[in-house]
Amino acid sequence: MKVTIVYVVHMQRAHGLSTLKGYTGYGSEQGPKELREGLVKAFYSDLGIDKDEIFISDGAKCDVIRLQLLFGPDVTMAAQDPSYPAYVDTSVLVGQTQGYYPDTQQYGKIVYMKCLPENNFFPDLSKMPRTDTIFFCSPNNPTGATATRKQLEELVAFAKKNGSIIIYDSAYAIYMSDDHPKSIYEIPGAREVAIETSSFSKVAGFTGVRLGWTVVPAELRFQDGSPVIKDFNRVLCTTFNGASNISQAGGLACVSSEGLEAIHKMVGFYKENTRILKETFDSLGFETYGGQNAPYVWIRFPGSQSSWNIFDEILEKADIVTTPGRGFGPGGEGFIRASAFAHREDIIEATQRLKSLYGGKSN
Ligand SMILES: *Cc1c(COP(=O)(O)O)cnc(C)c1O
Predict the structure, then answer these.
(1) pLDDT of res. 4
(2) Quick one: which atom of ligand 1 is closest to the CA of 202?
(3) How far is the CA of 55 from the centre of ligand 1 (A)?
(4) Which site among 56, 140, 142, 341 is 20 to 30 Å from 295 CA-CA?
(5) CATH of 263-358, one of 3.30.240.20, 3.30.70.360, 3.90.1150.10, 3.40.50.150
(6) Could you tell me if the CB of 197 is within 6 A of ligand 1?
(7) Which residues contact 1 (CB under 8 A, 6 or more apart)?
(8) Which of 94-103, 238-247, 339-348 shows the lowest per-residue confidence on average (mean pLDDT)?
(9) Which fold has domain 6-257?
(10) Do 184 and 192 touch, CB atoms closer than 8 A?
(11) Which tens digit of pLDDT belongs to each residue from 90-129?
(12) Which residue ranges does the record assign to the Aminotransferase class I/classII large domain (predicted)?
């Protein structure tokens, strides 16, 4: 696809590496200025983000564990349930091992914010306890739910009131087709309470190339008043020597106007796949969510079937791999996630098999 051609050509240019003039050794840990400027121009124009507040990395997942390392094992954290498993799993790795689930009234260091159709995928903040950090992913993986401006204003106000730091994951912002905020920094005051992490993985298929970034605004402070950016820089420089110069050359191609144009075309292709998938599940009578602002459809199965049983049934009877909702947290039980990242003919084939599997049943 065109986007691949654009960045592969640029990555080949990094072959200047074999020449005396073109060789580069360790680069600056924060990433090259041109790439940070390119990101500001492509994704943060008019949002007051400076290139020196951007840290280039080998991916958002890798930055999540570095952020956990930055905050340490003694903090309390909140995460959406369901959500990308890395937030909770990395917190367990650094030692925040006890869970809190409002339904069971257990208290520990991890607070699950249930985000399901019943609450319109946004937690009732008036019922949430204070935590030191709040991981929030919008558009959400797996539900595809996207927070509105008003909801994000509430979240920022909640963090400000409690002295919490939001870690906002905008890995799917490029898939948004409505005017909900694409970055937390669209919300006034977010610079004082939020870090944003994002990635080229879903933007341009860099899952194997590896490139992401994290924004830490200069105003963001710990409770003792010291700047978070200084400590994040220290954690990064201690644990990381910068993203590969080859993938950074690819990233630079992505944020060029030619690269962005190719990216939007590719995203459009996956959005059409998503539409086809959603329409199929809808026509079979399922309750579906997401699909508009993310490359995923979130499907509820009737009764209280376990998501692993649903996964097994679709795998065994239709040879299709889905993702069981339970893998994204307790709130994902009873759901599966369908991904649009596939060739069109495979998507069409999958819809036909789903129709023969579920077409006769009434759901
Ligand atoms: C895929 C994904 C990422 C990407 O992580 P990388 O390490 O950059 O590949 C980050 N956040 C979410 C929510 C994701 O789904």
Answers:
(1) 73
(2) 1
(3) 16
(4) 56
(5) 3.90.1150.10
(6) no
(7) 262, 265, 266, 269
(8) 94-103
(9) Aspartate Aminotransferase; domain 2 (3.40.640)
(10) no
(11) 988 888 765 555 554 445 678 889 999 999 999 999 999 9
(12) 20-343
